[in-house]
Amino acid sequence: MDVQIALMLAQDGLTNGAIYALLALALVLVFAVTRVIFIPQGEFVAYGALTLAMLQGGSMPATAWLLAGMGALVALIDGATALRNGQTQKLAGVLGWNVGYPLGLVALLTLLPVKDLPLVAQVVLALAVVVPMGPLLYRLVFQPIASAPILILLIVSVAVHVAMVGLGLLFFGAEGQRTPAFSDANFEIGPLMVSGQTVWVVMASVVLILALYQFFERTLYGKALRATAINRNGARLMGISPALAGKLTFFVAALIGALSGVLIAPITTIYYDTGFLIGLKGFVAAIIGGLASYPLAAVGAVLVGLLESFSSFWASAFKEVIVFTLIIPVLLWRSLTTRHVEEEE
Amino acid sequence: MNEVKNPVLQIDKLCVSYGKVEALSNASITVGEGQIVTVIGPNGAGKTTMLSAIMGVLGSAGRVSFDGTIEAVPEVERMVARGMNLVPEKRELFGEMSIEDNLELGAFQRYRMGHRDQARTMNEVFELFPRLKERRTQLAGTLSGGERQMLAVGRALMAKPRLLMLDEPSLGLAPLIVREIFRIVAELRRRGVSILLVEQNARAALQVADYAYVLETGQIAMQGPAHALADDPRVIEAYLGLGGKHQAMLST
Fold first, then answer.
1. So where are chain A's domains?
2. Quick one: which of B40, A300, A234, A216 has its CA closest to B48?
């Protein structure tokens, strides 16, 4: 291995690491606020990428219909509840968001010449289809069992993952997709060739991480999510409902997932089930952060990315094995260094 | 009966059970506008249970009428939005966040409803608790017991409640701090906040309150104007004891 190859591998590792970092942050966030280990995080990556690919192929993405279906279900449940409690003024909002929005989006996708729109518009439309599935998913699946033990939440989370992969196969077919790069620019830095897409991925990740930081430090809604993670009862007494916090968290997680998918779609071929492996690597990084520390999770993600790219050079057959074996020493080190603290009160 | 012109809170035949055990049975109490009403009683009498049920943290049967509207089963978020606030026994602060952030979150529901007067309310809270202002950037988890209690009360006040419910505000605090807390309770009434105060420190509670209920094994055993109960021989024997006069000093 010479310097040039090493630099290339490092660049690859960093690019992937940036994506894993985003996913790891989402996983830590979801776990902290709702105690759900969000296995389907990766599916949002695949859904985001493949929805964009379908839009670019000029066809109506089937995910839009999934969104409409989920919305209709939620409208049915919430609408019935509102009616039963006599809160008719709530009804308009429930119907508007859960039925009106998806149908409006489908109409928009039918009317617009989506195929010929600029890439930015296509990306926005893909996100508009995939991201709202996050809060809807929380409403349908996790809100009714919000107070269940972590293990139950995990089992349900696995079920959602399996269902989403199956639906993915149905929607997108078994073929892999690759979308055109955001930019064709190439930069030469010394012996290193950096592609425009790499710069996009790293920059977008950094911007998104900073934006998330601002959201959690500066805005009241961000603080409300942190408060829920710190003390669920206390947050409830302030009028921060667990349902609201859960939906908001899943919105952020879905946004991160779909955006990651859109970002890496030009670099790797995405299949309907690719998301799982990507999400799992984000999960390894989140575990390095103990499912609690955001900075450690981000550092872990870069580590996972670098390890992956270098091991693909030396022992490409064992690439995944090496990455996932990393979790064992990490868990050992974690269990040896952290004392088990009895739950307070 | 607590005869008041403008009841803020009226609960009627409120029952709560944990499985088969009935922790609260047919409790009926009234809190009038601008009143301090206290519920005293021994450990395990169901005082905290009652507050949790009124707030909607626990499910209950019976009728809770707040501010003229009846809630069959209260729901926490709605109660907060309507101006009811509970300072729980465990304080439930956000330990890894600053005092300022804790206070800001106290106004979350108001912020959500479109009110943007948080800065002014925070200044009022700081006036009441100058200690909190000095330490505004400190993490809540690093505060002393008394400061935590002040922060918990301050956080609840950020919501500008019509009714403030305090669960054992003096629990685990040094006598001087307890005195400070009761001084603030009295000050809050002067500002027009109605207060439902649950206390084990019966002497101090009776001193500051207008009306009092005695809760024993889940049932209202006695009630009356606070000064009358303070002189009632049964209350004296069970809750005040003889020669415990130094405790009364705490509320003066």
1. 3-337
2. B40
